[in-house]
Amino acid sequence: MSITYTFKTDQLTKENIQQLFLSVEWESASHPHDLYNAILNSHSAATAWDGDRLIGLANALSDGSMAVYFHYVLTDPDYQGQGVGKEIMKMMLEKYQHMHTKVLVSYPKAAGFYKSLGFQSEESSIPMYVFSD
């Protein structure tokens, strides 16, 4: 297995992005066109590949100066526990090291992973959402 990592998005397609999101059973996969546009319109996206198979992805939304928000961070379950997600996040944290604020919202089961990368929970804030169909 030879995994490659890149910030280039030229290999991304609706199909390979959707397949990755389906592999982790995320609802976003049911909107492949919007999901594809969301990734391509991000400030940046780091990806991991096993040959031509997309196995990991993280995207960043940023003002380019003060803050960055890491929205999607996911690794195909076949590759979890092999350092793929950690490598992708190291790429992102290095790219945005100059930012004053780096934010993400974690599911409880993934919080330990993000803590190992230096993220901390913020006791004085609550993540809030407005969902639409």
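Above is the first protein from milestone M3; the second protein from the same milestone is given next.
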Amino acid sequence: MKSLLLLPLTVVLIACKTSATANNQQPSEQESFLVEAIQNTPYSAVVKHIRVDVLPSDQPDFTEQHIYYAQVLETFRGEELSTINYSMFVEEGEDTIIDQNPVIVTLCKDDEGFYWPGTGAQFEGTTALISLAKKHSVRKTESNQTHFSHCN
């Protein structure tokens, strides 16, 4: 009887181990997007958002400009700064809720400062994603890159 009970448990444990091994070999979609975002934007870092200001927009297709302010916890690409702010142009009434947990952001930059490149530019600040970002930081990519496809 005891061996009959152990058989399903053994099968479950083997399946879990196989699943974990497969996950380690294949990066998740989020991991792939993070690597692509780091490689295609001039700035990436782990930040903790402090506040957001909502202003009227001077852009014809958008009604508001959100200015996000954040403390930089670790820089992966770009100039090392202690704080940053970046702008995002949105439709009127879009949420300005800021996550109090650390997040990874990938940003573009122009003469006016940092700006949000769009969907797929913010990632959870998990240990696994931070480790992946470190692995693919500017120190591991072409440092004299001038074209950033996420910033067009």
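Note on the second protein: The chain has one domain: 28-151.
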